[in-house]
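I hope you will forgive my troubling you with a question about protein structure. I should value your view on which stretches of the chain appear to form regular backbone elements. Here, with my thanks, is the record as I have it:
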Amino acid sequence: MIDALDDARFWNRVARKYATDTIKDMAGYDRTIARTRQLLRPSDTVMEVGCGTGTTALKLAPGVSRLIASDISSEMIAIAREKAEGQSCRNVAFRNGSASHPDGPGGVHDAVLAFNLLHLVPDRSATLAEAYRLLKPGGLFISKTPCLSEMNPLIRVALPVMRLLGKAPTVSFFAAAGIEAEIARAGFTVEARERHGTGSKDIRIFIVARKPEAV
């Protein structure tokens, strides 16, 4: 709980600057958006956890019936709501909430999305369990996650120090095989694993996993 409160304060503090940052690999991001659109249907009700300032939710909303997006940072959600109002997007609801304790009944969503999130949550097991709970049988869990263990080893030293100085949030180190195994242990069937980056090395693994039809 303390980690979550600290992280909320961190993201609240940096939210406005974060909102102005450019996406470093826009082509890779566009590939992820296009691939996700292929997986979603116009009739779908979708939940995105860790939505940040709402950029991805607003891109995907026109292709689904309803999209609910949440983030631990109230400042991020305020920015997302401003964007939604500016774009006259009416089928998105932005809510302040934790990825490991999202509000709402279980078994009602056709898809749950978690982009650039799983390395940041203090309790991944709880986050994955909640994603599973929120989904209808047969629903999709779609994630894209930086695998920090695949980065320069110096990052392992730098990030904890930055965390102590208040310059970084909580982070976890794992490789692609590790996070895929965690998703499988949460009860999902992994159907696809992809890399969408355009550089020589892409540390972000895109995983499509399904909640079984019979649960």
About this structure: Residues 84 and 90 are 8 Å apart (CA to CA). The helical segments are 2-20, 26-39, 55-60, 74-86, 124-134, 154-164, 176-185.
